[in-house]
Amino acid sequence: MNNNLVDNFLNFLENDKKLSNNTLQSYNRDIKLYGNYLDAHNMNAIEGTENSIKEYFTELKSEGKADSTISRNLASLRSFYQYLYKNKIVSEDPTSHIESPKITRKPPKILSTEQVELLLNQPKCVDLKGYRDKAMLELVYATGIRVTELISLDLDDLDLDASSIKCTTHGKERIIPIGSIANSALTDYLNKARKSMLKDEDDQALFVNVNGKRLTRQGFWKIIKQYKNQADIDVDITPHTLRHSFAMHLLENGAELRAIQEMLGHSDISSTQVYAQMEQDRIKTMYMKSHPRA
Q: Measured between alpha carbons, how far is residue 18 from residues 15, 26, 136, 160 in Å?
């Protein structure tokens, strides 16, 4: 694989498409994995054909890769070859007629309000880390923001007087309200912990790790896992589980789907409609169990 081609493509995605660092890393992994396959077959990206790409996906399938993984790889390679084609590096896009595998999407995992309460009550405000973790968990559930958005927050993205935060993703800005409990937890964190945790007092990161630097995705995942185990909750919990639970609990309590879409930052309402479908299924199940003539 020609590393210069990959580097130029990634620079294009970063500078022109304004993709996040995590998305760039995903593209990089997918394309380099494909590059390893080409190298093993004495080929380069420019020589890639529809058949060679299909054979590559067949090999991924034989290794036990899920359809969702293969679909993501195809999306990465499609973007890569479209870039090469537009820049006249290849004469045609070999991915143009390759269909993505059909994926059966599993419904998102939703915590009950009791499970959320149990999880959010785990951090104890007896030390710096406790104040920080309490503020983070309350904020994620209060707003439904993604973990990348959480760790990217700066001080000036938080407006405690207005009880809101500002999130900027892919150049699009949205303002999300926060509730009184999250507001209180954030106030305590700012007043009693953050300054003492900072390594550089000029650092604008809202949440920092024990080394005083901006918290990472991996750091927050470990925090979620720690408190999930501590609470003895018997379902798998990821940062996205809290995002799904935020949306579903809002819907169950009468929030409009469009408002939920806006708070989640979904560009397409179809991404939000999965929660409405889940709620309809729940009501139907309850009806079938409860109505005497069902």
A: 5, 14, 26, 29
Residue ranges of alpha helices (H) inside the chain are 3-15, 21-40, 50-62, 67-86, 113-120, 128-143, 147-152, 180-189, 195-197, 217-231, 239-252, 257-264, 269-290
> Which CATH number do you get for residue 204?
1.10.443.10
For the stretch 162-194, pLDDT in tens is 999 999 887 789 999 999 999 999 999 999 999
Say if pTM beats, i.e. exceeds, 0.85: no
Cα separation of 20 and 72, whole Å?
16
Four-residue CA torsion sign, 260, 262, 267, 268: positive
Contact 102, 67 (CB under 8 A): yes
pLDDT tens per residue across span 124-137: 999 999 999 999 99
Note down the domain range covering 202. Answer: 113-287
